[in-house]
Amino acid sequence: MPRRGRRNITGPVRLVAVVAALLVAAAAVAFGGTASADGPDDGPGSATEQGSTTEDTGDPDDGLFGRAGPDDEDGASGNEPEAQAGRQDDDGEQNDEPGQDRSEQNAGDQGEGRNEGDQNAGNEADEQFPGRDQAAPPAADDFVDITDVEPGNAPDDKGGVFAGGTFTSECGTSDHRNSDNYQAAPGKRNGAQHVHDYVGNTTTDAFSDDQSLEAGGTSCTNGDKSTFYWPVVRDLNGVGDDANADGGGKDGNVGEILTPTSAQMTLNGHPGQKTEPMPQNLRMITGDAKAKTNGDENVVSKWTCSGFTDRTTEKYPICPSGSDLVRFLDFPSCWDGETLRSNAENEAVVFPEADGRCADGRVAIPQLRMTLTYDQPEGRSFALDTFPDQQHSPKTDHGNYQSLLSDEQARTAATCINSGRNC
């Protein structure tokens, strides 16, 4: 009896043990699968964390133009080989559990967010500095041999017909440079997207105004605080120190900047008309910096060569040996008598008639001519700085001026001009 009792008890116990063992094994498998699927997301080697590391350190290929960098089109980072390859179970077989798919999806989502951020940065750059993708060197047709240009072909309705005396401010050839333009793009760094040479006022930049300029110094020997500026010319065979800078290489303006060998800022008179004093703080722009796309209406470009100044061209002149490159920038000089901010749109100051006289109702003020001379670069190896989409067209030549002559200096200039003296 006792032996049979032990056998009857042991049988059920063994059955319970077998069932318990099976339940434990099933639980182990279940928990093991869960760990394989979900565990790596929380571990130090997870795809999500690696994606965060890429985000934190920055993508070295992401730049001003919003380039995509090393990420795939779907946004999965190149720093995620484990996510790309998937996970392996203990038996070495590929694990395609849904948990791994979620991890990869998370990495992809982060990649897409990163690319979207890069795209936004690129869009902001495009809006701030447009046209960079259109930068190109000047065309061969932008050049002409000066000996092929007929004499006397300058437009007679864009200034340059002078009479009487002159008043010249000797201001040097280049006081400072930047790619700002406080007249056309006030308060915006690199508003010009090309480099300007400045003489006269020593403080001119994007944030200049009447008060700051009046408080500034000057490079002019006669104390004229006026600001004069124009786009630089570059030798395309050289290398500029701004090759990776805004206004320089980033905006398609490459090559070594040429400093003028001379820069004359001269006020001239009108034939048969008395010239009134230059209004203080009058601002003027001559030419059209976007003439390649805007058309020829406001083109004032007058390029020539020393020894051939009886002929000018809107193209870059190829000068013979021993001749220097010359630019004339003539400013409008018939004022409405009221407005101190002038450009081609508001016509506060316009050019004289073909005979050099101002039409009725217009005040004849001094005609400013900037004469800029450079050592002649060889052949077609030079170009003007321009907005990138203007592709260095010589027709975009332009100049800017704000008069800060004192009242006494302005009266002296008018007296010299009207009396036929050169001052």
UniProtKB/TrEMBL annotation:
* Entry-linked InterPro entries: DUF1996 (IPR018535)
Where are the residues of the annotated region Disordered?
33-139, 171-191, 381-401
Q: Which residues form a coiled coil?
A: none
**Upper lineage:** Bacteria, Bacillati, Actinomycetota, Actinomycetes, Pseudonocardiales
Do the record's keywords include Acetylation? Answer: no
All copies of the DUF1996 domain together span 186-378
Q: Which UniProt keywords apply?
A: Signal
Q: Where is the signal peptide?
A: 1-30
Protein name (Swiss-Prot/TrEMBL): DUF1996 domain-containing protein
Q: Which organism is it from?
A: Pseudonocardia parietis
Instruction: Supply the Pfam families for this chain.
Output: DUF1996
